[in-house]
Amino acid sequence: LMNDGYISYGQCVLQVFIFTSLAWSELAILTVMSYDRYAAICFPLHYEVIMNPSKCQWAVIAVWLSGSISGILYTSATFSITFCKAKIIHQFFCDVPQLLKLSCSNNYLGAIGVEAFMFLIVFICFSSIVISYIHIFSTVLRMPSDEGRSKAFSTCLPHLFVVSFYITTGTFEFLKPTSDSPTAFDLMISIFYTVIPPILNPIIYGLRNEAMKEACRKLRLGGQFTRKKTFLFCC
């Protein structure tokens, strides 16, 4: 916005912390949501007990606490290395693989160790989501009612789409070799996992909520009613 590609060291540290914390929180929320759908479809009569408000509050606290801890670990490990090359980041934000490329010694092994640990946690979360959906689909396919199967699939498929999209693009971005000159494809992949999933979340989940639907319906009807009153007043 300021036509300036400069970012200070402190701003870069803050950006890496916020990015890592929110990225991890997004994955943790998606994991909790897969368990929520597993409980709703596989144990519908016990759902209120399994996902009671107290457990949901603890789940939210665990999500944000784990996000903050991972952000602190990742940021501390990343900025413990010495940057001695030309400090040019070929990305539109402080991307960690690009930052590691600026190191000219082997002191980035600690950062790679933290990355390996976080990839292990990501794999555990992904495995939990896969196991949840194996149970979900096996339960849905045994449902005798076509309407019940359709409702269950309409509940699960948006979440499954966001999970697949987010994890696939994020993993591809972090595993592919970093380039000295960014291409349009590199920037597009980065946008896919940093921008699009947060934009899709309120659309996919919020507009499926009955309270949100009712609020949007009232807002739309209220706008139509106001336009009719204005038209009558003008007449």
Account of the 3D structure:
It comes from Chrysochloris asiatica. It is a multi-pass membrane protein. The chain is mainly alpha-helical. It has a domain at 9-144. Helices cover 76% and strands 0% of the residues. It is built from 9 helices and no strands. It has helices at residues 9-42, 47-50, 53-78, 96-100, 109-141, 146-175, 184-194, 196-206, 210-234. Helix 1 (9-42) runs antiparallel to helix 3 (53-78) and helix 6 packs across helix 7. It is elongated. Residues 228-235 have low confidence and may be disordered.
Reconstruct the topology from this structure:
Blueprint (H helix, E strand, L loop, with lengths): L8 H34 L4 H4 L2 H26 L17 H5 L8 H33 L4 H30 L8 H11 L1 H11 L3 H25 L1
What is the beta-strand fraction?
under 5%
Quantity of strands, as a count: 0
Radius of gyration: 23 Å
Structural class, from helix and strand content? mainly alpha
What percentage of residues falls in helices of 4 or more residues?
Answer: over 70%
Low-confidence stretches: 228-235
Order of helices and strands: HHHHHHHHH
Helix count, per DSSP? 9
Taking the alpha carbons of the first and last residues, their distance comes to 46 Å
The biggest sheet, with number of strands, parallel, antiparallel or mixed sense and barrel status, is:
none
Query: What is the overall silhouette?
Result: elongated
Overall mean pLDDT: 77
Protein name: Olfactory receptor
Domain G-protein coupled receptors family 1 profile: 1-205
GO molecular function: G protein-coupled receptor activity; olfactory receptor activity
Organism: Chrysochloris asiatica (Cape golden mole)
